Please model this.
Amino acid sequence: MNLLVTGGTGFLGSTLVPLLAAGGHRLRLLQRSAAPEAERLGAEVVRASLEDADADAIRAALDGVEAVLHLAGQVSFDPEEPERLYELHVQGTRRLLEACVAAGVKRVVLASSSGTTAVFEEERIGTEADPYPIAVVGDWPYYLSKIYQEKAALRIHRDTGLPLVVLNPSLLLGPGDARLSSTDVVFKFMERRIPAMASGGLSFVDVRDAARAFAAALVRGRPGERYLLGGANMTFRDFFGRLERLTGVAAPRVALPSRLNVAGARLLERLAGWRGAEPPIDPHSVEMGERFWYCDSSKAVAELGFQARDPQDTLFETVRWLEEHVRGKARPATLAELAPR
Model:
């Protein structure tokens, strides 16, 4: 097919684009920045931003396109940024999908997050049938913007018939996260920068398995449906215990009650602010670590042929890649968040 990919240079995109190229698809990327690796694969790059509201650029990017993979987004847990996140995730997506309707695009696959449905204060496993957890994520503008993005996209599907499929991956791990946009939790563990054990649990999926599900959704996904993609559900104690065995770095031994964990993180944030330094961990990350992000991927298994590899293999490959490409050479540009993207 003739495909347009947004966000093709991110962690998921940089894994998916070579897969699509190998499958014989003709690729065009809509990017704010250059994408030399995609160009080496034969992809055309259109330099534009969904935030610019440049209707002409978006229409030009969609010329001759049969299907769109919309991966573009920004992970941020800064409470001062809700308007920017809403503009990018909701308004930008609305502009793109309206242009897709006008261009007669035959399929759109939207990358969302398992955090739009599978996040709980108690230990349980979420499915696509669970309601949007607005009360749980109300203080996290990123997840609110992703919820409203999904709502806007599915409304356009219902109103216009645009064939739209939503995929909801959990925390993406695996090799190749050059920006530390998702694997920063593992990197931070390796750097001994996690001071206490969170009491919640997470879900993660290998980025290579998620990429194959996105490719499959181009032909197998049912329009109007959402698909959770999770490779493993485990407590943070189990997660960090596995990382300890892989890296030799001791997992946090201190496990505080949830309220003390959050209060301690807020105190450290204030102390760091007085010194003009970066806090060791931010309160939003701690709050997220006290929740349960477990999800059930059986729908994606049945309908997309999704298969998750052994989670230990994913953790091993993540640690090895970070050791070879990042550790000792770079630091994360932002604080680590213990949550899916």
